Amino acid sequence: MYDDGHLNLLSHDSFAGGIPHKTFARMRKEDPVSWTEGDSETKGFWSLTRFDDIMLANREGAIFSSAQGIRLEDQSQEEYLARRTFQETDGQEHFAVRRKVNPSFAKPVVGQFEEVIRSLATDIVDEALKKSEFDAVDAIAKQLPMMMLGRILGVPDDDLEWLVEKGDALIGNTDPDFTDHVIDKMDTSAYRMMPFRSPAGVELYDYADDLLTKRRTVTEGGILARMMSSEDGLDELGFKNFFCLLVAAGNDTTRYSIAMALNLLAHNPALIAQLREGNCWDTCADEFIRLASPTMHFRRTATQDYELHGKTIREGDKVLLWFVSGSRDETVFDKPNDAVLDRLPNRHLAFGQGGAHVCLGMHLAKLEVRIVLEELVKRIDTFEAVDEPTWTRSNFISGVKRLNVRAKAV
Ligand code: HEM
After folding, report:
1. CATH architecture type of domain 12-409
2. In the structure, what pLDDT confidence band is assigned to residue 172 with cuts at 50, 70 and 90?
3. 398 Cβ inside 6 Å of ligand 1
4. With a 6 A CB cut-off, is 253 part of the ligand 1 pocket?
């Protein structure tokens, strides 16, 4: 879709041709606290698009609360309680669960996966390069996060394709390529108590039930085993929702970050050459993730009236923190739309930095992005796009979902 700088952020179609950066740039400049009218399904909402304002709202978790939902969809209290994870809680309630899950995602713990990731990445790239033309999202970007999800959770490889398909249907619930139940095109009220209001949520709940009742087993030491244990564990509904959160959050986001990197490389051989020089491996993953910013926003709800840039956000109003826009704020980032692979510092907001909910999986995601690119650039002589990529239809999750490339192995 042509971005005239005034696209409606409520419409998923505004994002179907890629992220509307012109619209965000105009909003940052002219209308940083911007109101979008709702429709019959969804109430109106505020958008924060500047880096400093997003940081402020993220810091002030008591005023900008996560505990009434974190996506744009309006939920009744009953729906909220049935579907929430610790991501949809505040303060001590949030901290109590975060403390339990945090150790599994700490940098040194994730660092122990480096060899496994490299071995998987090597196989994935070798397999992809057996063909001279292929869809790089499907053959490369999708594969590594999927395989790693299995290792993090502790579930068998045979289940992964299925889990990822269901995770795609959850998070891609507005895109007909990922679900038959497109949320803004049909009545999905039958699934209103399920994660992402999706029938895939029912199937993932059943899978989680099987884990709990030991009809399926998980690997000792995996995060699910820990969350099922009596000391550290979550209650049944908490476990099922946590499981769905990981299947959704741990997968597409990293896929779309790798896909963004591949898209840029396939259009710009100078970036491949720069990676080959080897001076920017410590910084490039953050830069690709900044540019991708796959979870474009998360929502908060104001718990009191709040004045910002001359506008009054009313208690109960929904406020979207557009991380995707803050990460390209020209007052913070030099050349915000360019891939500056050695950018340092890189204070992007793609992981929701600056608040209590900062992404748990960030170290894992960065490691995956870096290693798969290291293994790719070693093995390619040329790597070029053969047509234009296609993008997710969603105002929540953004990413290249198909990238046909022609590649020559060295
Ligand atoms: C490049 C990849 C990723 C991106 C861009 C990303 C983005 C984000 C963002 C923006 C948040 C903050 C949510 C908020 O403010 O409400 C978040 C939270 C979270 N992420 Fe990620 N994520 C990525 C990868 C992962 C992975 C690989 C996992 C797990 C395997 C994961 C698990 C989580 C969890 C559990 C939370 C909730 C944390 C909390 O509420 O305390 N993410 N992520």
Report:
1. Orthogonal Bundle (1.10)
2. confident
3. no
4. yes
